[in-house]
């Protein structure tokens, strides 16, 4: 008898392709042309947004942020999870 075992998958996230963006004074200003809405990101969020140009896992984003900022791992993971979840909820990133 062969048992099928579900392998855990690691979600990757990437920006939606129809987001227009520009940088103004260290702030990313975006427009989702599908929704017709404007958004802005400041601070560390701009770095996370940059990392999401390519499909990225939460873990890879956490590692990159921790290399550049002095932040505790558990706090960083919590913040990155929340931020990416917010981006997904707003329709700015998708799971790939």
Provide the fold topology.
Elements: E1 12-15, E2 19-24, E3 27-32, E4 37-41, H1 44-51, E5 56-57, H2 58-68, H3 73-89, E6 93-95
Antiparallel strand pairs: 1-5, 1-6, 2-3, 3-4
Helix pairs in contact: 2-3
Q: Could you explain how this protein is built, in words?
A:
The chain is of the alpha+beta class and 96 residues long. It has a single domain (12-91), classed as Outer Surface Protein A, domain 3, CATH 3.90.930. 38% of the residues lie in helices and 27% in strands. The protein has helices at 44-51, 58-68, 73-89, and strands at residues 12-15, 19-24, 27-32, 37-41, 56-57, 93-95. A three-stranded antiparallel beta sheet has the order 5-1-6. The protein has a three-stranded antiparallel beta sheet with strand order 2-3-4. The longest helix has 17 residues, at 73-89. Mean pLDDT is 90; it is low at 4-8.
Summarize it.
The protein has helices at residues 44-51, 58-68, 73-89; strands at 12-15, 19-24, 27-32, 37-41, 56-57, 93-95. It is of the alpha+beta class and 96 residues long.
């Amino acid at each position: 008898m062969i048992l099928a075992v579900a392998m855990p998958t690691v979600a990757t996230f990437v920006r939606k392709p129809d987001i227009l963006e520009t940088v103004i004074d260290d702030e990313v200003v975006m427009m989702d042309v599908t929704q017709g809405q404007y958004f802005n990101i400041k601070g560390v969020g701009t770095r996370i947004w940059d990392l999401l140009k390519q499909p990225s896992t939460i873990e890879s984003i956490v590692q990159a942020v921790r290399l550049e900022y002095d932040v505790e791992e558990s706090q960083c993971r919590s913040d990155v999870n929340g931020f990416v979840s917010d981006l997904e909820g707003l329709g700015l990133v998708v799971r790939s």
